[in-house]
Structures are given as C-alpha cells and as structure tokens.
Specification:
With 392 residues, the chain is an alpha+beta fold. The chain folds into three domains: 85 residues, Rossmann fold (3-Layer(aba) Sandwich); 60 residues, ATP-grasp fold, A domain (Dna Ligase, domain 1, 2-Layer Sandwich); 194 residues, D-amino Acid Aminotransferase, Chain A, domain 1, CATH 3.30.470.20. The protein is built from 13 helices and 17 strands. Strands 9, 10, 11, 12, 13, 14, 15, 16 and 17 form a nine-stranded antiparallel β-sheet that branches. A four-stranded parallel β-sheet has the order 3-2-1-4, sandwiched between helices. It binds adenosine-5'-diphosphate and magnesium ion. The site of adenosine-5'-diphosphate has 17 residues, from strand 6, strand 9 and strand 14.
Amino acid sequence: MSRQTILPGTTAGGQQTTLGVMGGGQLGRMFVQAAQAMGYFTAVLDPDVSSPAGLVSHFHIQTDYLDEQGLAQLMQRCAAITTEFENVPAPALMTLGAHRPVAPGAEAVGIAQDRAREKAHFVRCGVPCAPYAVIESATQLNAVSDDLLPGILKTARMGYDGKGQVRVKTRDELAAAWTGLKGVPCVLEKMLPLKAECSVIVARGWDGACVNLPVQLNLHREGILAVTEVYEGNIPVALAEQAVEATKSIAEGLHYVGVLCVEFFVLADNTLIVNEIAPRPHNSGHYSVDACDVSQFDLQVRTLAGLPLQQPRQHSPSIMLNLLGDLWQGDGQVTPPWDQVLALPGVHLHLYGKLKASPGRKMGHLTITGPSVDAVRTHALAAAAILGIEAF
Ligand SMILES: Nc1ncnc2c1ncn2[C@@H]1O[C@H](COP(=O)(O)OP(=O)(O)O)[C@@H](O)[C@H]1O
Ligand SMILES: [Mg+2]
C-alpha cells in the first residue's frame, strides 16, 4: 500500500491518531513508549491480559493474532500497524495490509519466519552464510554431506533464544535429533568457530531511504543475548562497514519497510558470516534508547508513520546487560538490589513490567553510558558483580 505521512494529533473526525502493534512483549512496550513520547495514541493486539506493552498502551485488544474481530478492531483504531515479534502469523499481516499501511509487510516477515527461506534470501543477496542443508524428509536427512558435521540442527520455524536447536557431531546424533524435533522442517548448519558475534540495525522507509545504528558487538550465553557493547573500535572498522553494507543489501532485497536487525558471526580470520534476521527492533539495539539521539524504537515509529529518517548519532559509548529472570532469587520473589546498581554513574534501568520472573526470561536490561569506554566498562562490570551476572 502506498503511503502518506501520519502525523500525531487529532484527526478531522475528532479521534487521536493511533499507531498499532501486533504483539505485546517488551519490544512492543518500548515501541509504544516511543510513539507516545511523540504524541501518538497506541493500540496493542496481544492475547495476554498482562502483556508488557498492553499494560502501557492506550488500547489493548486482547485477542488471538488471527481473531477476525480483534484484527478488525485494530484496523478501525489505527492509522498504521507494525509488529514486535516475528511469529505473528503472516495471514494476519496480509489481512491488515489490505486495509492499512503495515510495516514490515507480510512477505518480509514470512521470510524471516523461516530459516530455509531466510538463508535462500542471503544467497540471493550474495551475503555469505554458514554452509547448510534443508531437512524436510528422511531422504534429505540421508543425503546430508559429512562436511556439515559437527553442526547445529535448527527448526526452520518458531525458534528463538536458542530454542529448537540441537548440536550434533555424528550422523546418528543428527538422525536422533531430527526425530527428537518430531521430524519438522529443519536446517542443519555447519558449526563454525566463532571469534565474535555482532548485529546491525537498519531502518528503511517507504521511499527506500535507509539509515543504520552503529554495529553492535554481542555476547550470547546459552543461546540468549547477555551483553551488547557499542563504541568506536568494538569491531574492526572494515568489518563494521562490511556488516552495514550487507545489512542494507538484505533490507533492500526484501523491499523492507521498518526496522530490521541482521545478526552476524565473525570467524577467526575476520570473515563475516550472516546468521539470521529479525524483522523488528532487537534486543541488541536497546542501548540506542540511552546512547543515541534516535533510538531503534523512534526509527520504528518514523518508518511506520512515513516520517523522515535521519542517520542516528551515538552520543555515548555504551554496554547493555540483559536482566534475566535468574537474577530474581527465592523462586522469583526477591527483587534484585536496583538501588545499589543505580548508585553507579550512567546506569539506566529498564524493566518490562513482567509479573513473574523465571529462569531465562527477559525481565529487563541495564544500559551503562559514560564519558569513555573505560568508565562504561568499569561501571558495567561493577553492576554485573552486584547482580551476580558473570563478568565479560
Ligand atoms: N552455525 C553456528 N556455528 C556456531 N554457533 C552458532 C551457529 N548457529 C548458532 N550459533 C550460536 O547459537 C546462537 C543462537 O543461534 P541463532 O541461530 O541466532 O538462533 P536464535 O533464533 O535462537 O537466536 C547464536 O547467537 C550463536 O551463538
Ligand atoms: Mg539469534
């Protein structure tokens, strides 16, 4: 659908201009907060009565993602609609997209939902990814080349935070793992020796204009993002430039509109390998709220509303620490000592309003900013020590 600029304020009909989001998790919450800061009303569609975004939105449509009445209500309220997680059913986005501007669109989200289609897109764009094979049948399983072992078997759909993945060393382990995953369509990827992981967030407008955040250096623990470090020199300049160019070409190839994150691996010889894409703001971009003049959520609002995009400027080095439910002791009942952490300079606490802490659950994050990388690192390590987060 072609686009007009959507400005905040009261419409001719006396309604408040409202932006909508499919999904009510923490990413939706931070989108809602950015949209509200610019004067928009917001609507969230999420079945969970206490979803983080639903709790802070003007409107919360509490239905399933495919509920026709829910989708109709969302369209009736909203001038444009975005998504905050990639597993929003593509048919729901198509329904919405027939009547309202929707960014990102169903086609791009559909590709990001499926590792096999995603990898085919990388190949089309000429961006190297890990050697892989699609496994949808016993024949394909048996035909897998030994070169892909040891490898990681990943379900093609619905995986996140390392879920739906099995590491396999031998053909027997591979066969057992595929059976264990109930024979659903999978991708087997060669296990690569990673030196580092990084990600790039771009925002692309309806007119094709594209801006990027600085490259994020990411540390994962047990398949979940733990630490993101963003400052000049976090990765070699040539690599950073390559990652930004690759991300832009991936976005371009998707005719993407909205905020897109691309995750990369860096190998020992500094080869850059694309891992996966997220058709939305990303955990590794949370620092941008506190460390950049335009955050990834501001960019999401701007792309959705057809507002101008400006290249964001990072005004402070930053380190982001994820706060997982493991930090809440006593079976999730004991609140961590935020007062001690906030006594450190440059610490920004973000909690997502989740009612229950459980191991591995993303409850919030800390962003540490400061006048120098050394200061940021010192205070980030001190915060980690107070909270019992492993040093990095
Ligand atoms: N081919 C690979 N070789 C080495 N490590 C990998 C490979 N694929 C994934 N990993 C590790 O597992 C993490 C999670 O995998 P990823 O494909 O990004 O899944 P998710 O959708 O759960 O984020 C990665 O960030 C990386 O640390
Ligand atoms: Mg990932």
